[in-house]
Amino acid sequence: MFAHRKNHRKEPISRYLSQFHGCIMAKQRVRFTFPQNLITQPVIHNLSHDFRIVTNIRRADVRENVGWVVMELEGTEEDIENGLEWVTSIGVRVDPISGDVVE
Amino acid sequence: MSYATGLRCRECGREYPAGPLNVCDFCFGPLEVTYDYESIANVISRESIAKGPPSMWRYHPLLPVDPSHAVDINAGFTPLIKANNLGRSLGLNELYIKNDSVNPSFSFKDRVVAVASTKAIEFGFDTLACASTGNLAGSVAAHAARAGLRAFVFIPADLEHGKIIGTAIYGPTVVAVDGSYDDVNRLCSELSDTYNWAFVNINMRPYYAEGSKTLGFEVAEQLGWKAPDNCIVPVASGSLLTKIWKGLNEMSYLGLIDNVNTHMYAAQAQGNAPVVTAYNANTFNVKPVKPNTIAKSLAIGNPADGYYALKTIEESRGGAWAVSEDEIASGIRELAEKEGIFTEPAGGVVITALRRLAESGQIKPWETTVAFITGNGYKTQEVVEDSAKPILIKPTMAAFEEAVSVRP
Fold it and tell me: Can you tell me the distance from the alpha carbon of B196 to that of B127, in angstroms, rounded to the nearest whole number?
């Protein structure tokens, strides 16, 4: 599941920083809802570490069988997109913080 | 003039000046309009309301906009009818139907969009926008036409053709999004961050939601200035249920009605019942679901106000009921056949939930109960298509009498 992380960990810091040149930095506010099997996993840490996303938690409620976290993500557009794709792929539901807007 | 004083976060209580803003910058909690109730108390009375126009604008001191430039297509002040036939069938002596399906664009959305579009003009926007599966789209397009605003309406690409016509006729730009329901949600959230438009239920949401209070005001006035014992309300985002409750309590606070002892009941379809599921699990943690229901106007899997709807149910000592998909059409038929009101599937959900609540004894025969019918059946005829079974005859008396055994 986490095989893609290996490359990120071994990058030298200069290469790591150079990746931001020419990229569009972005912020995105999201709500993660965790299923029971992911409650004990360090998902947000991994998202931050492996996708170079700064995570800024504003509100959360994590219980035994379900949890949600509302936060702001900051990084390049590409990293945020990849990071959200990864969390979705492992079973986290990602929603806009305003809830559904299609009424 | 408006008696709104600004916005307040429903979570952390931080206050903001009135602006096109829907979440708290600090905790990302939702914002709600605050009012100067002391000043409102000086200008509002039963008499002043009764002298007002026969529309939702008769309650303008309790709305967050200046009524002098209201975008008015005559929303509101819809009939509250005593439902004797349906009441008899359910064993309820004091049953009322609030028929909001007869608003100008045929749903209660006209109330919220009237406020949002008026506020959009106050803020200087020239474009009204929304993402919708039907009712909201029609209402936004109609109000934009009336106000001379540009309108963009985003719809899922697979939306029924009839609903697209019901929106397109008002002349907005209709954008059909080729993607899943979640894709449409995400795209429109992103668009609202990028474009300087008034998205009625995103950056205008605090004002928009206040329009629903007028349903509570009207019901209290139409019942002879008293709050009902029970309200059965369809739940999508959950905002309507919380705002009817807020409306009743504002009236009580201002001395227009006595204490509110109303029980608020949420009605959802089993194919999309995140609020009812949380209620039954005795939690305020609403777990988002993927909607799979014929009640499209209630198909909000991640309800913005689900938590607050649950809080309202608890505070009012109400309840919640999810009806099976199979029962929705029978609820539509029951209301049509007993009271002459043709509602959309959301109304079928309400009537079936009402029946279940009455059968289970949660609603008592002598209590004043109001069922809220929020959308019109003419928009969703496909749901009850099998009702159309005319008897085909030759144009003769004999053929008629042979086919239909009735006495002259």
Answer: 8
- With a CB cutoff of 8 Å and minimum separation 6, the contacts of B231 are B219, B241, B244, B245, B262, B263, B264, B265, B318, B369, B370, B372
Q: Does B153 touch chain A (CB under 8 A)?
A: no
Q: Residue B171: which region, alpha, beta or left (left: phi > 0; alpha: psi -120 to 50)?
A: left
Cβ separation A98–B136 shorter than 8 A: no
pLDDT at B207 over 50: yes
Q: Residue B97: beta bridge partners?
A: B81, B371
Residue B301 contacts A, CB cutoff 8 Å:
yes
CB contact under 8 Å between A96 and B185, yes or no, is yes
The pLDDT score that the predictor gives to residue A13 is: 44
Tell me the domain boundaries of chain A. 24-96
| Distance in angstroms (rounded) separating the CA atoms of residues B107 and B327 | 22
CB-based contact, B205 to chain A, within 8 Å: yes
Verify whether the Cβ–Cβ distance B300 to A61 is below 8 Å: no
Residue A19 has pLDDT above 70, yes or no: no
B154 chain-A contacts, CB cut-off 8 A: 102
SS (H, E, C) B67-86: HHHCCCCCCCCCCEEECHHH
What radius of gyration, in Å, describes the C-alpha atoms of chain B? Answer: 21
pLDDT given for residue A20 in this prediction: 54
Nearest chain A residue (CA) to B137: A103
Q: Which residue of A has its CA nearest to B203?
A: A98
Write out the CATH class of domain A24-96: alpha beta
Is the CB of residue B80 less than 8 Å from the CB of residue B70? no
